[in-house]
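How it folds:
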Amino acid sequence: MKNKALILPFLLILLPLIDSLFIPQTFGIQWHSPKLMYQAGVALMIIKLTMVAIGLWLLLKAKRLYMEASKSTRILKFSVFLLGGLQVVIMTAICFWYLVAGTQAKHFMLQDNIAVFTADYGVFAPVHHEFSFICFDANGFYHLQPIAQLPWLGTFTFTSQDSRLIIQHKNQSGANTQEISLKGVGCLQ
């Protein structure tokens, strides 16, 4: 096969694309905590950007193959090159955003076996808090069991007592306490 030299660049360009589009963050691995997996995903973005850049370089380096290739191979190579170029632009923008604005790691709170993620999408959606149980297996992998999704609470703390989630929050209207029943919600053993 004449096009063996294209396999590596195609893999280096298409694998990060597949991971970004079709697989949950960090290859869908849920180990230790949601915050750790988010931070691993941020680091993985730099690795994926490097992979795509190397793939594009290898694709450009294979000029001889371009001239000798059939029309369908040239179209495929050009399409993969465009996908790689688009990925470089988007991933560079995301990495730059991480440098300028920081990551969303500060939006994760963990206490006992309850995790809270504050979803702050700016103008695209209202800010809300997602409360979930973190259910671990014997190997340290977890899955999230949703408890509640609440609108913006302002500054808050939470505890769980007697099958209740007690949330103390302070916003424009002052200090408030909100309770959510945890009966029937939790990790199945």
